[in-house]
Design goal:
The chain has 173 residues and is α+β, with helices and mostly antiparallel strands. Helices cover 21% and strands 31% of the residues.
Amino acid sequence: MKLIILAAVIGVCAAGAIPAYVPPQYRYYPDGRPRAALERNAAILRSDSEVNEQGYRYAYETENGIQADEAGVEANGIQAQGGYSYVGDDGQVYSVRYTADSNGFQPQGAHLPTPPPIPDAIVRSLQHNAKAEASGVYDDGSYRGKYIDASGVVINRYNYPYRRFFTPYKTYQ
């Protein structure tokens, strides 16, 4: 009996000493990412910055593969352009070039998603609307001028030149 208890205690101790296999997607990283420890102590290899009346610029590079540069001027707000790159957790280098101005932040990168193409029916509709506006037809969404004339009379569009009938029309402006 003592031999069975001793074997059980040794088995429990041995089982506790062996780390359990945890698939990579379920592993816990205290800093949230596997490369965080490497990035925490990365040395700065290059750092340049300049600020003057014409604008500013900066650039830096670290030993873990992070690089960034930007140049900007103050004109109608801040207008800047630059880029950055870094090594992702999967070991791939990700690069982004961008401009930031009155049109907003506009990044460009091979890994960034792109919008789907505009359907042909929508493209044809936009072209039709542009043609109509160029010829002087403008649709503001109201019925005035199309179905109601200036005096408030509803235009019967099915037999327009021959028959009109009066409908009270009140404008709320």
